[in-house]
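Re: [ENG-882] Designed sequences occasionally contain unexpected residues at chain ends

Forwarding the minimal case from QA. Structure tokens:
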């Protein structure tokens, strides 16, 4: 995987913080998902599918979320250009426009907003289907397999956790061999696949704090200069928030778990990142 420079990582993290702030989707979840999907590389491209960008959206998945939510975020030109074809797939009449829309997957700000909207949509639908709260791993499965695939996966896992994942999802297994098979080439069970994603999301979130140190340092300077107030629902001062951020960077705060809803900790961290980039 291509190494991401500190400047590029800072832009990506700021974009994710902004998306979390605008949509209400948990910052920690979005950051962990991006790290797992692309290693925070906004230009990442899969070799076995059309998956591209920070959140590795497939062509059709990207067209769908832009069609549904693009206009809300200043992308009306893109949303209006996407149409349902007779075969049920989404298409764009002009080849150049289609290429431009798909290229937006490599824009950290746009990709983060669409990923947040996609996660919010999937959360509502999964919870209605499963009859329980959706976890971060559930949401990731919906991104990875699509909503219908994730619903099938989760229902099947509940009924028979030892069932083989590759047998149920041969196309996905063909494009993601290391997910569905272990190092010895043996097929993983549904429960093993799910646990693997849970562990990876947790590890991705747990490795976030050190990477944010340059941004948090910059944010502290901005806060100390203007003496602003952090609005997190607890009437915290900039000094209080800065003290918290320094503690988080030191590893005293766990990554946002698997829930979509923002926590006070991730709200404060998102604010500090936005302050550091001037987005207040």
């Amino acid at each position: 995987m291509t190494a991401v420079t500190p400047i590029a990582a800072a832009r990506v993290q700021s974009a994710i913080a902004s998306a979390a702030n605008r949509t209400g989707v948990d910052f920690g979840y979005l950051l962990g998902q991006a790290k797992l999907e692309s290693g925070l590389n906004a230009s990442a491209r899969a070799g076995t599918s059309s998956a591209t960008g920070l959140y590795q959206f497939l062509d059709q998945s990207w067209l769908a979320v832009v069609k549904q939510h693009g206009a809300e975020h200043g992308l009306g030109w893109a949303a209006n250009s996407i149409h349902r074809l007779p075969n049920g797939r989404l298409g764009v009449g002009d080849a150049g426009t289609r290429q431009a829309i798909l290229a937006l997957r490599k824009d950290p700000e746009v990709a983060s907003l669409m990923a947040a909207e996609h996660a919010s949509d999937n959360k509502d639908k999964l919870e209605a289907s499963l009859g329980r709260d959706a976890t971060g791993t559930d949401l990731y499965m919906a991104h990875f397999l699509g909503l219908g695939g994730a619903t099938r996966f989760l229902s099947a896992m509940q009924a028979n956790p030892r069932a083989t994942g590759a047998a149920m999802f041969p196309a996905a297994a063909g494009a993601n061999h290391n997910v569905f098979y272990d190092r010895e080439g043996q097929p993983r069970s549904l429960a093993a696949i799910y646990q693997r994603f849970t562990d990876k999301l947790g590890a991705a979130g747990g490795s976030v704090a050190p990477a944010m140190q340059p941004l948090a340092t910059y944010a502290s300077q901005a806060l100390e200069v203007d003496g602003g107030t952090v609005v997190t629902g607890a009437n915290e001062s900039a000094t209080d928030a800065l003290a918290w951020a320094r503690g988080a960077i030191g590893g005293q705060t766990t990554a946002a778990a698997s829930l979509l809803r923002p926590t006070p900790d991730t709200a404060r961290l998102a604010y500090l990142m936005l302050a550091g980039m001037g987005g207040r």
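QA comment: On inspection the terminal residues look reasonable. Strands lie at 82-84, 90-92. Proposing we downgrade this to a documentation issue.
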